Inverse folding.
């Protein structure tokens, strides 16, 4: 109990029951108490002196070593206008554009104002997708900041400032090791895989899943044995990732096992396709990455069938894709079920020929989005134009939201043209909000930005124009 708490207790209980003990008071207070035998006066004098000490504070501590200064960041500072815009982003104004601002600064080799680094680190602590960009923005000061605040420990993992030797893999932080593994896969995929295999059994489950994703860089037949072994991992996520990678390995044993299963379910003739659904999801099927529990609204057997088709090499199907898709289909769910499963296969195996053929048939928007992303980027706009003409722009919400960003310029111009012609349709809001953030810099001067004051348009139209203007100004602030 503190001296002040003791005095409060004496006041509440009375000095008869709880007398003041001068020996328990701090020495500066004890030495200044008057000599008296009156408990009440002793209490009041002690309280007055102690209250004065509390108001005056404490004597300054001595022997404190100053904090070492942060390392010097040699990069030039961003412009004052760009710094002010960063402050607006950090204060919540169009915060979704913060990654783009950080990318602009990184591409031009500029550093952020040092007083903004704590706010950036706090934002990245709550949004893991920001962490790589914020580490780059912090530069050599990142580890210094991480050493002083535990919540910012991710700044200690700065891939661009680490040793490229295998020492990094053995002793680095998780993100640093992942970055080393990804870089090593680009130059020495076999050596990188061997380094992962050496530590695999000691890695935690989330680390194994994270490192396994890095094997997608430089993926090839030499990785099959390692990935086959990962199918027996105790982590379901690791097994799923291993199976997804094996689907992309040419002539892998997993693909052959799936083809054998599909041969018993699908019967192809010259004129039609007849298929049936699997009756069970046994241990062998689950080992090969098939998830047993379906999404809400999907039957279990249809879900297993879709996954088997998606993991079967598309080369198993006879004939050219466009010709095969014109055949009549008989089976549970009919052509729609089979085409949707084939779309999943084309997306998983990243086959542009099949993707192009499947986009010509009627598919759900989610399947179409995955297929468009498989096509070369110079063909995105044409595919989206056909889908919009066939189904209407509003039907492409799932597609637009699923495409990687930034979009190619011709796709950006196409969607902005369509939005500019339909500014009163409320159901276009999700597409407009996505387009405002995803179109490339070449589209930021689109004529739609000249219609900001036009009356009667939907609220999404105002947001679209304002965001495009905001991004345009942001890019101009980084120009030399």
């Amino acid at each position: 109990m503190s001296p002040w708490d003791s005095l409060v207790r004496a006041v509440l209980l009375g000095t008869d029951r709880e007398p003041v003990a001068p020996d328990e008071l701090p020495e500066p207070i004890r030495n200044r108490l008057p000599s008296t035998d009156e408990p009440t006066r002793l209490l009041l004098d002690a309280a007055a002196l102690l209250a004065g000490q509390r108001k005056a504070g404490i004597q300054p501590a001595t022997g404190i070593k100053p904090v070492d200064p942060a390392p010097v960041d040699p990069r030039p500072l961003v412009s004052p206008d760009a710094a002010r815009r960063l402050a607006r982003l950090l204060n919540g104004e169009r915060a979704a554009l913060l990654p783009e601002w950080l990318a602009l600064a990184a591409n031009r080799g500029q550093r952020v104002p040092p007083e903004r680094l704590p706010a950036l680190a706090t934002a990245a602590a709550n949004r893991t997708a920001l962490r790589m960009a914020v580490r780059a923005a912090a530069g050599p000061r990142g580890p210094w900041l991480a050493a002083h605040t535990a919540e910012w420990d991710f700044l200690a993992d700065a891939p661009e400032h680490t040793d490229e030797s295998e020492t990094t893999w053995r002793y680095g932080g998780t993100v640093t090791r992942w970055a080393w593994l990804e870089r090593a896969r680009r130059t020495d995929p076999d050596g990188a895989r061997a380094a992962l295999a050496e530590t695999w059994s000691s890695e935690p489950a989330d680390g194994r899943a994270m490192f396994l994703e890095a094997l997608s860089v430089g993926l090839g037949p030499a990785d099959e044995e390692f990935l086959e072994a990962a199918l027996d991992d105790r982590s379901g996520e690791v097994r799923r990732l291993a199976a997804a990678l094996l689907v992309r390995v040419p002539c892998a044993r997993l693909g052959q096992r799936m083809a054998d299963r599909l041969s018993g379910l699908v019967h192809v003739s010259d004129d039609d396709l007849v298929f049936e659904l699997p009756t069970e999801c046994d241990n062998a099927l689950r080992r090969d990455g098939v998830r047993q529990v379906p999404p809400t609204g999907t039957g279990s057997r249809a879900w297993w069938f879709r996954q088997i088709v998606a993991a079967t090499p598309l080369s198993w199907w006879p004939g050219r894709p466009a010709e095969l898709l014109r055949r009549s289909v008989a089976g549970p769910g009919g052509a729609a079920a089979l085409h949707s499963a084939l779309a999943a296969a084309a997306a998983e195996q990243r086959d542009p020929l099949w993707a192009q053929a499947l986009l010509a048939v009627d598919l759900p928007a989610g399947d179409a989005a995955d297929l468009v992303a498989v096509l070369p980027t110079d063909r995105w706009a044409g595919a989206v134009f056909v889908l919009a003409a066939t189904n209407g722009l509003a039907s492409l919400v799932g597609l637009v939201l699923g495409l990687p960003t930034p979009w190619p310029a011709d796709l950006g111009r196409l969607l902005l043209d369509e939005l500019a012609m339909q500014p009163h349709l409320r159901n276009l809001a999700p597409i407009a909000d996505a387009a405002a953030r995803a179109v490339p810099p070449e589209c930021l001067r689109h004529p739609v930005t000249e219609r900001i004051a036009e009356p009667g348009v939907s609220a999404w139209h105002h947001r679209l124009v304002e965001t495009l203007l905001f991004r345009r100004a942001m890019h101009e602030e980084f120009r030399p």
The chain is about 55% helix and 0% strand.
